[in-house]
């Protein structure tokens, strides 16, 4: 490979070997751009962590070269890290109307709205930089205003699919701009990055229109109040719910902060037409009979503070579940959320609701392309090189196999890790190095301070709690003048464990006396001796392993 | 309802509004029997808990009346609590061969094997007690030797389905004894308890035979080593794997402690025929070419210490995953296990294996009846009264609706909670009271000592860790003579938080000085003041809420 400035570098910083924090850097000559900048939700073992963002240290080290951040769509795993990143560098952010509308709410919460340079684009708009141009191309996804991105360089086009499905009967707006895909494929795409979420699924993803037909069927002849929970960001779904309500002469109320926000933005942008006064406030619901109401709410994932979950628990301030309500959960549980969702479903049933969820009816379709749609895009784009993105390893691997099944050569398909530096020349794609990459934990106000040690301790504490031993010693002699006192939390129920604690104190006293006699004075040794002795004793008696915290006070 | 000793009482103690710890007591005159005695695996918020068993206090209070424990089959959620229960009362346990074979291993681990009275039964055997008789009836499930149970009383038959599916082409043994179901229905079943796990699914569960056909297809012309992970208890699945191996001239090795145990028991009982020497030891694998080996292993649920998970992680002592291995995961993730399973799948792909799992091929069928099979059983048994069991509320509710859809009256179908006392007379079924019921947590050696307070503390510790403040005061004056010292675990990374800790100490000192000046000496007040002051400060600075443990040492 010629080692000169003609190489394009693709540096994924998130979204590979995971679902979440999608972030890709493209570097050419002296310019860097980012495609997306997302967050990931914490895994079960990331105790106390609020969100996970990508390690952007390479980008921050080169922030002068960063010319723009280009967003494919407004989901959290594509824009959620921006408030943290924009605190470190103020770079223009390009996106479609709804995408920036959603981002604005976030920036406002973080106090960054006034200073961030937001640039709205439309489909086929091209942003010209010094050495590259970035084009937005309309696609379809489970959120309106989704785009693919084409980066035009002297060496050819880099194509990034964003998240997409092929829906020939879209609810709002035009279908994916497949004509432009074909034009780019004809022009010459040197490398495609394409999402891999549904690569395991054969066939096609069903059209969003089908969900509308199910809503229509459910609402027809229904004499009860209807509550529909769905993703706030799925504007097309909301449009269909409103449309079905309209056809069945029902008013619509909206519940849940993010739902109110995004529906508000969508109405402002003219995506949802409510000029006939169909939307009413929650407080007005009681003015109508039950069979003339539809409530659209957050909580399709069983999120603890969401509107539907609070209704199911009985602690929503304004809304309760009435016997006979039809509650439609118009989403499938994201992997990991199955239990919170079924918990809410059970609570709703117990309150006498009739609950319709994905196991019982077709009230959700995926926003991600299945195998036949992926093959279509590969065949239109005809890239020279291919990097599967947006998936765990099993998705990336199977997407690579799909590409090879269509005729791509093994050496032209690269499965990467976050942090890999992939260099592309006219005749070769090659991994040439790595940069820092990984996860940064956000906990409260702290970004990156919680790391493995803190998490390891939280894990230990969560399993068997903590036992604190406090001993007060005289400064020079090392004699015990107070204690040992033992305080536990999360270990045993103290009232029933007095003997255990009493015996533990005796042991600590005995082992410290031994140390005194052997003239051992160094605190580190004393503490370790107490720890080891107690650990063995407690495990023998309880088969539990609490964290042991020896504290020596010297007076 | 006549209040006399002719009432039969059904008292569910586990398995309602949950999947797990199935335990039902039946009380008639002076006799009590238990049908099953299972455990439940801990939910995510049951930190540090090993298993959950039912609250059996009602049974222990009446242990002299308990005449026998009757087991429907050998799954953990039907027999897993027995080692804990049999420590409190030594009651004969009745079950089929494989069921008791599996139970024996457990009792041995708990040192109860010698003293427990195990009684083996076969299909259609009847155990005569003073006032009732208990009959075992052959069914099909995802474990061999599964039974339904009929309790014969002067008032009629109580029928308990156990866990079952209707499989007309069973792999081993005879199909479910539907003729006996019909005979009982004709004789007169006064009340049926029937499992509800798959009531959401329309149609039929596929036959186990179909999985065998998939195995055959995968093994034919395969030139690689094959590893199959499945539930150790699914003897029929293991028979099919061995049969496919046999037909393709491969040897079979078994890996994983529970797999080795149960396969051993099944061979002893003659359920698996390995007289042709098809089974080899793990150590002999290397004597054969890769295309002549099948390894059957534990780990189909991504269990951390299972054989397949250790192979995927690379720390199995005897087996590693080789590039090209075909790994078949012949199970679906139990709800809650999706992430551990996909983690293993990703690791296997990374090691170069070809992984076949349920999304990609038909390599698993459920062991639970779907709607049409449930309707069949209702129609054969024709009970007067019906109690849906073995399900969360949504399952019980939908099963009740299914029964009413077949013509049962509303008042004859009862959805219960654990602990309800259901009395049955010849003309009425009625809830007449409750007994203690609920969950007992087992953690290490402790049974029932970990309760809400300990769990609440573990939860708090897991989120933001702990901050311990130690202050040494002079006995009478209340003057601070050492400290405050602050030690944290799981809260912040200390090296980066020195300012925070320094400031926190200052605040504690200041607030204690105030207390001294106001002559406040009571420890409870001092500790609370320290706690509140610190909590506010730490939250303001970090938006985190660690547990705060103030410790006062007096000298």
TrEMBL record, chains A, B:
The active site is at 195 (proton donor), 368 (proton acceptor). Coiled coil: none annotated. It is an enzyme of class 3 (hydrolase). Zn(2+) 1 binds at residues 73, 75, 77, 141, 163. Pfam families: Lactamase_B, RMMBL, RNase_J_b_CASP, RNase_J_C. GO terms for molecular function: 5'-3' RNA exonuclease activity; RNA binding; RNA endonuclease activity; zinc ion binding. One of its GO terms (biological process) is rRNA processing. Ca(2+) binds at residues 48, 50, 443. Binds 2 Zn(2+) ions per subunit. It is not clear if Zn(2+) or Mg(2+) is physiologically important. Binds 1 Ca(2+) cation per subunit. Seen in 1 crystal structure, it is not clear if it is physiologically important. Its EC number is 3.1.-.-. InterPro entries: Metallo-B-lactamas, RibonucZ/Hydroxyglut_hydro, RMMBL, RNase_J, RNase_J_2, RNase_J_b_CASP, RNase_J_bac, RNase_J_C. The keyword ATP-binding does not apply. Residues 20-215 form the Metallo-beta-lactamase domain. Its main location: cytoplasm. It is found in: Cytoplasm. It comes from the Bacteria. SUPFAM superfamilies: Metallo-hydrolase/oxidoreductase. Keywords: Calcium, Cytoplasm, Endonuclease, Exonuclease, Hydrolase, Metal-binding, Nuclease, RNA-binding, rRNA processing, Zinc. GO terms for cellular component: cytoplasm. PANTHER family: RIBONUCLEASE J. Homodimer, may be a subunit of the RNA degradosome. Belongs to the metallo-beta-lactamase superfamily. RNA-metabolizing metallo-beta-lactamase-like family. Bacterial RNase J subfamily. This is Ribonuclease J.
């Amino acid at each position: 490979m010629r080692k000169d400035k003609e190489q394009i570098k693709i540096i994924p910083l998130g979204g590979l070997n995971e679902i979440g924090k999608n972030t890709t850097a493209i570097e050419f000559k002296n310019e860097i751009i980012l495609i997306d900048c997302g967050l990931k939700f914490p895994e079960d073992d990331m105790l106390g962590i609020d969100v996970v963002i990508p390690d952007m240290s390479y980008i921050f080290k080169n922030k002068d070269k960063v010319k723009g951040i280009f967003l494919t769509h407004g989901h959290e795993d594509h824009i959620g890290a921006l408030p943290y990143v924009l605190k470190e560098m103020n770079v223009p952010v390009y996106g479609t109307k709804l995408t920036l509308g959603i981002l604005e709410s976030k920036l406002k919460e973080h106090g960054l709205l006034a200073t961030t340079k937001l640039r709205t684009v439309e489909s086929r708009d091209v942003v010209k930089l010094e050495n590259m141009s970035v084009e937005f191309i309309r696609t379809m996804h489970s959120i309106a205003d989704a785009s693919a991105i084409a980066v035009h360089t002297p060496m050819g086009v880099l194509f990034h699919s964003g998240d997409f499905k092929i829906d020939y009967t879209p609810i709002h707006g035009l279908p994916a701009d497949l004509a432009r895909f074909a034009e780019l494929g004809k022009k010459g795409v040197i490398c495609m990055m394409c999402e891999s979420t549904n690569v395991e699924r054969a066939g096609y993803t069903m059209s969003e229109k089908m969900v509308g037909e199910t809503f229509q069927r459910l609402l027809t002849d229904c004499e009860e109040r209807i509550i529909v929970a769905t993703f706030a960001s799925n504007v097309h779904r909301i449009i269909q719910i409103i449309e079905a309500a309209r056809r069945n002469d029902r008013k619509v109320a909206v519940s849940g902060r993010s739902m109110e926000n995004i529906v508000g933005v969508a109405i402002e942008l003219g995506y949802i037409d409510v000029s006939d006064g169909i939307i009413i406030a929650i407080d007005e619901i009681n003015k109508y009979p039950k069979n003339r109401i539809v409530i659209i709410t957050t909580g399709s994932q069983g999120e603890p503070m969401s509107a539907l979950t609070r209704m199911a628990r009985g602690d929503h301030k304004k809304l309760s579940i009435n016997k006979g309500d039809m509650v439609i959960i118009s989403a499938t549980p994201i992997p990991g959320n199955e239990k919170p969702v079924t918990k809410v479903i059970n609570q709703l049933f117990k309150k006498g609701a009739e609950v319709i969820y994905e196991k019982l009816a077709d009230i959700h379709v995926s926003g991600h392309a299945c195998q036949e749609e992926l093959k279509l895009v590969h065949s239109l784009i005809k890239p020279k090189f291919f990097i599967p993105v947006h998936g765990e390893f099993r998705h990336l691997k199977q997407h690579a196999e799909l590409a090879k099944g269509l005729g791509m050569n093994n050496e032209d398909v690269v499965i990467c890790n976050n942090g890999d530096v992939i260099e592309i020349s006219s005749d070769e794609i090659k991994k040439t190095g790595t940069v820092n990459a990984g996860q940064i934990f956000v906990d409260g106000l702290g970004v990156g301070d919680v790391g493995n040690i803190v998490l390891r301790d939280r894990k230990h504490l969560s399993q068997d709690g903590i036992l604190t031993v406090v001993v007060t010693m005289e400064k020079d002699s090392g004699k015990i003048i107070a204690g040992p006192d033992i305080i536990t939390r999360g270990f045993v129920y103290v009232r029933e464990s007095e003997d255990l604690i009493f015996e533990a104190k005796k042991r600590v006293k005995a082992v410290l006396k031994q140390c005194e006699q052997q003239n051992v004075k160094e605190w580190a040794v004393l503490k370790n001796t107490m720890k080891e002795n107690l650990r063995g004793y407690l495990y023998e008696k309880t088969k539990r392993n609490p964290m042991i915290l020896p504290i020596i006070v010297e007076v």
